[in-house]
Fold this protein.
Amino acid sequence: MNAPFDRRRAQAGPSRRDVIVTATAAGGALLVGCSPTNLMALGAENEVGAFGPFVKIAPDGAVSVVCKHIEFGQGNHAGLAAIVAEELDADWARVGWEHAPANARLYANGAMGAQLTGGSSAINNSWDQLRKAGAAARAMFVQAAAARWDVAEGEITVENGVVSHAASGRTTDFRELLPDAARLTPPAEPTLKDPARFTLIGTDRVRRKDSLAKSTGQTRFTMDVQADDLLVAMVAHPPRFGAKVASFDAAAAKAVPGVVEVYEIPTGVAVVASNTWAAKQGRDALTVTWNEDKAETRSSTDILVRFQGLASGSADLAEGEEWQAFESQGDAASQTGDALEIGYDFPYLAHATMEPMNCVAQVSGNKARLTFASQGPTLDQLNVAKVVLNLPGSVEIETLPAGGSFGRRANFQSDFVVECVEIAKKVGKNRPVKLVWTREDDMAAGYFRPLVHHRVRVTTDAEGYPAAWTHRIVTQSIMKGAPMRGGGVDESAVEGAKGSPYLAATPHVDAQLLTPDIGVPVLWWRSVGATHTAYVMEHTIDQLARRAGQDPVDYRRALYRKADAKRHLAVLDLAAEKSGWATPASEGWTRGVAVHECFGSVVAQVAEVRMENGEPKVGRVVTAIDCGTAISPDQIAAQMEGGTCYGLSAALYGEVTLTEGRVDQTNFDTYRVLRHSEAPKVETYIVAQPAGAHPTGVGEPGTPVIGPAVANALLALTGDAITAQPFVRAQA
């Protein structure tokens, strides 16, 4: 059963010190001796247990690993727990996990400086930290056992939670030693296990710990949160981005049975009711007049045409717009000869999570408590603190699992979270308010992967290899206004093109980015910039290979050798071997290959494709990945399968369009996604690494490779390049 709602009451009224420090933080003043993570955690409780912030051991000896990263389907909790369990030598069957509280000082993502899950960094940035946490806890039990038995610590062994002294034949367990171990001080630099002695990491024993609970309905999601006095809210959002409420008539909404009140908030008009259905009926009954003086009124086709013109030089730059170089070497403009020139178009994409946005908030005075799936607790604390006028760390967050995110639940504005707090603040009295967004709300009023246009011109040498590469990317900036951005090129827009081994192998490169301002809210989307750069680079390379009369795999091998891209070469060779690239495909099928690096990992895919009823049908996909130490091979395979299907869905069907500023797609009937019957068979092979190699990301690297692999198979089949996504237009 779902756990009851926590009714801890918030203390009303800030102290004088809280007001002073809050004002200082809000004013941007520098607090001497206070690091950024400490500043963001001001007001938070910093007490930790005997074994540090990441390890809890119950009186019965069961181990719980505190995960600073949210679990929204990707299964990172199992890998994080396994790192601790390996070093602790715990009984894996008795190791569990829980979400960490919101506290940037204790639980910041080492790669981001804030408590935030993203960039496929959960395992990567926790590897050293959690190894030390597990090793420190183990050392405490060893020390406790040695003291109890009056023997040398070096004579103590630990295996599966059993502590032993072989010479005397004595054994005990964590439960028996816990009182003594908990009184010790964790060593700051514990001795880590030799990776050659790992018995858990890298084995198929590392499986998800939440499957049973999810399968039986025990996992508690935000929609499961209940309380006797809980209110449910829905918001009427403007039909165009940037519009504001001019006026509204709430009479019909208030006449709906169950509707409690109607409030204007900064993002629209909120209807608060005793249940979800009443809130929806009341919201639908509202009459709202919108002020659209500052609204985005262009259609997506208008935006795309302008982007195309900017890239080709036929459209003038607006005030404040300027090109920024992200790769430059030699003199590409002076190179003449045989050239391939081509443009690529990518539409807006919805995140389309299975669980739309929702949040539960309680506000009393300047205290706020949130219960929901927080992907970026630090961002949410900072934004909510501005609403309730308190310290960021004083905003309490209970993080629940989520039904997907793909980046949607973490944005710089904490949009739906702040919306919920605004409503709860109006309700007041610490009464819990659950904000519910429908699928239609999130499709039309959420955030999108930006619309992007690339223009590429490649001049080749006598052997058909790139001699000069000119590249223009036009897209909105996801990072504009980001609190952690330091200026310069928006790396999220160019990652995957910048640093490409193909550019490293090209003597002359001129690659530039332009980020016009458009009134459509954009956000990172699973694999971010690689969603479009991988396609452009890989589909262009296949066209160049065809022009040179070379096999696409051999052509890539030559370029990787020129660029000394050993990891790319290794995954390419493994995928080619396992797919049988050197032998003909089955009758009616053709193969395409693509390779891409993102989030520290390199992935190669070979896709087998044929046409059925005028649409591409993808059958077998062979995937090779270099991701450092493979903590959970089974989970890596699952992420490659999920990422492949997500990327294939976008490449085949994904598209959000605007007509005069209004989003056309409202649900899965008009935003087509991959069905189960369309999912390919995905085989995953992991490149072997030296023991203890630092792990890299796996949550996103499988997403961007499938699109170009399929496009390259279709290129081999038809001889025609595919210059726009989606490959199949959704039917309205």
Summary: Confidence is low (pLDDT under 50) at residues 1-32. Residues 356 and 442 are 6 Å apart (CA to CA). The domain at 44-213 is CATH 3.30.365.10 (Aldehyde Oxidoreductase; domain 4). The chain has three domains: 44-213, 222-294+357-436, 448-718.
